[in-house]
C-alpha cells in the first residue's frame, strides 16, 4: 500500500524552484548593505488585451469548478456529476501546494455527489474512496475516516471496523503532528466500535443472565473488547478537544467495571481542565454521573453552576432551580430566581409549563412571605420593557389558553404579580378561567387582587426601604 | 517486393548472425529470424537514392533507434511539419483548394526552413548544434539559394502527393551527439528553447496557425481568421494535443512538452501579428489582390455579418457607401504587402463588423435614446399600415437577437467549462515520471467513467459540423423573428432625390486616437462610458468573431476617424484658434 502513495508535492516544475531560490538569495544581501536600496513592491500583472477570450487549461477548470459549486448548491447532482467528469482532468496538473488543490476538491465534491446521487451505490462510493486514498499521503487518514463515517451511516459496521484497522496499520515516512492526531482519531473510532461490540455482548449476557445461566466465552470476549476499547478511548481523551462520544463510552465502561474513581477523574478532567475548549456537555456528563453516584447537593449545584454560566438556557436549569429553591441558604434561593428568570429569556422556553411553574412557585412564596421582594424587583427591572410583549401579549394569552391551560395558569400568576391585575394576559386568562368555572383560576384572581400592591412596589422606582 | 529491396544487403544480423532481412512497414530493415530491427547503412540509401522513390521511406530506417525506449531520432522542425500537415489536411477536408497543401503551405514551410537555416542551406543551424558534421557527401548544396538541391530530393517524395513528414532533411543532413538529447525526446528540443532566436522567428504552436492563415490568405480562401480560429477551438482543425498523431517512434518528453503541448487557445492578435511577422521574415512578395469579388472584401463580409446579425438587407447599401467613402475597399488597402510598413494590416473580419457598427450609429445613433424613439415610430406605423414590407423596429430586433445571443452565450460558456483538454496519449516530462503520470491518467479515466455514468447525459454529443454561421435566421419562419426583409423607410428621408438618414447627429467614440506605437491600441474601451445599445452591438459581434469587444471598438474608432477626418480636423483647428 505504501508504494502506491507518493508525495504529490514533488512535481513542482523545476523553473519555479529556481526562481524562488534566486529571490531568496537576493534579499539577505539587501539587508546586509548599510543603506538598503529601495525595493519596489510587485505590480499586478498587466492585463492582456484579449484576456477574456484567452482560455487556458487552468482557467477553464476554474470556471468548471464554479459550475459544479452552483449545481451542488442547487442540489442538481446529475449536473454536478456532469461537470465533475470534466473537472477531474485537473488532477493531471495538480502541482499546487495550496491547501485545497484539485485533488482535495475532487475528493470532497465527489463524496458529496456520490452520497446524494440517487443512482449511486455504497459499492461505488467505496470504490471512489479507495481511489482518493491513493491520491495524497497527507490526506490519507482523513479520507479513511470519512469513508468510515459513511460506512457507519450505511450500517456497515464490520466494513468500517476493517477500514479503521487498515488505516491504523498504515505508515508513511515520518509522521507529522497532524498525522499523529489523525491517527489517534482513527484509533479512537476503532475503540468506539470495540465499545459497540462490548455493549452488544453485555446485552447478550444480561439477557442470558435472566435465563439463569451465563456463558463464559461470551463474557471473556466481552472483557477483550473492553480492554481494546478502553486503551484507545483513554488515549484520545487525554488530548484537549471535544470528545463527548468517547468520554461517554469510556465512562460507561469504567462504571460497569466499578472503577468510579477513574470515571470521576476523567469527567472532572474533561469538565475542568482549562486546556479543553469550553464544552457544556462536559458539565452535563459530570452532573449526571454525580447524580448517579448519589453525591451531595453541593457538588451537584457546583456542577450545574458552571453549566448555567455557559448555557443559561440548558434544560437542566429546571433541576438547578428546583435544587436551589429548596436550599436553606438565602443566596442560593436568590440564584435560583435568577436562573429561572434567565432561562425564560430564551424563546425556546416560552411555552415550557414546567419552567413557568417553577417561577410562579418561587414568586408566590416570596410574595406571601413578603420577604425579598427586591429580588423580583431586580430581575424585573431589566425585563419590564420587553417581557410584556415577549410573554404576556393578548395574543399569547389566547393561544396559551387554547393550547395549554396549565401553562396559562402559571403564566397568568406571574403576569399578575409582575404587572398587576389590569395586565392583558392576566385579565384574559382569569376571565376565561372564571367563565369556565375553574376553581384554581378563581383562587388565582383572589390571590392577585389581594397582592396587587406588590406590583407597584416591584415596578416602582428604586426604593431604599426594600433594600436588604 | 521485400526480396528486391533486401537482396543487396548481405550483412549478418548482429544478434543471431542470420542473413534473412525483411522490411518493416516503415521501411526499416529487420531480421526475420530474431526480429531485430537495425539501422540502415548509408551505401544502400545512396545507391537507391535517385532511382527509387522508395528511398524516402527507407531513409526513415536510418533514424537511430534509441536503446531503451525504442524511439527514433527526430527534430523539432519535423514535429512542426507534422502538425502543419495535419492542419492543412483538415483544412482540405473542410473544402480548401488542394493546391494549398502541396504548393502554397509546403513552399512557405520550405522557405521558412531555409530562412531560419534549418535546412536547404550550407550550414543548417550551425552555430547552435556544435557536435554536428555538416552537409556531408550526400548533400551537395547548390549555391543558388532559390533552388537548393535538397528541394529536388524532397520533390521526389511528393510524387506520393504528400507533404512528406517522415522524411527528415535535417536529420539526414546532420548528426547530433547523443549528449544534446538528454532532456528532450527530440534531438534539438533543448537547443531549440535555449537559442536566442530573435532574428530568426522561432517556430511555435500558434505559429502553425499563422502559417495556415497565411496560406489561406494567399489562396484567398473564403474563411476569415476569426472563423479559422473558431474551427480550431471547435476541434475541426488539429491543434490541441496534435502530438497524439505523431508516429509511435517520435517520443515526446522533457522540453518537447514545452514546445508541442498547448494549454491555451490561440489568441486572435497573436496569430494575426505572427502571420505578418512571418510574411516579412520570409520576404514574401505582395499577396494576390483582394478585389471586390473576394470573400474577404468588406462588402462581402458585411453582407455575411448583416445576415448573421439578423439586420435588414437594405443596410448593405449603407455599408458599401461607407466602405467606398473611406477607401477601405481599395485593392491596395486590402492586399497584404509583407514588410511594407506604410500599409496597414487589415483584420478583414473585424473591419467588416466595425463598418456595420458605424452604419448602425449613422442611422440609429445608438445613444440609448434615439434608436428607441425611431423604434416607437416604426411600431406605430407597422400597426396602422400593413401594406408593403414592415418597417424595421429596433426594439424588436434587440429583443429577438438578445434572447438568441443569451442562449448561445450560455451554451458556449458551459461548453468551455466542460472542455476536455487531455487526450488518450499521456505525456511525461521524464521517464521516472512516467509511471506516476500513467497512474494519474488511469485514475482520471476511472473517475470520468464513474461520474459520467451519474451525469445522466448520454455520451458526449459529437462535435457539430463546421458552419460559418453561428446564428441563423430564416425568412421562412413565420414568427417574424427574421428582419432581413424589413425596410429602413422609417429611418430615412428623401432629400433632393436622395435618401438620407433622418438622424442628423453623430457621436464619436473618441475624439483623439491613441498612438498604436505608444500604448499598443488606437482606442480604449470602457463599457460604463458608452451607451448600452452600443455595448450590446459590440457584444453581438464580439460573440460572432470570438474576440474582445474592445478590439471591434478600436476598429470602429479608426473608421470613424477616416470618415470624419475633414470635419474633425476643421473642428480641432477651430477650437485651438478659439482658445488662443
From TrEMBL, chain A:
It comes from the Eukaryota. InterPro entries: SL1/TIF-IB_Component (IPR052669), TAF1A (IPR039495). GO terms for biological process: transcription by RNA polymerase I. Residues 1-12 have a biased composition (Acidic residues). Residues 1-32 are annotated as: Disordered. Pfam families: TAF1_subA (PF14929). GO terms for cellular component: RNA polymerase I transcription regulator complex. Residues 17-27 have a biased composition (Basic residues). This is TATA-box binding protein associated factor, RNA polymerase I subunit A.
From TrEMBL, chain B:
It comes from Catharus ustulatus. Residues 8-39 form the RRN7-type domain. The lineage of its organism: Eukaryota, Metazoa, Chordata, Craniata, Vertebrata. One of its GO terms (biological process) is nucleolar large rRNA transcription by RNA polymerase I. Belongs to the RRN7/TAF1B family. PANTHER family: TATA BOX-BINDING PROTEIN-ASSOCIATED FACTOR RNA POLYMERASE I SUBUNIT B. The keyword Zinc-finger applies. GO terms for cellular component: RNA polymerase I core factor complex; RNA polymerase transcription factor SL1 complex. The keyword rRNA processing does not apply. It is found in: Nucleus, Nucleolus. The gene is TAF1B. This is TATA box-binding protein-associated factor RNA polymerase I subunit B.
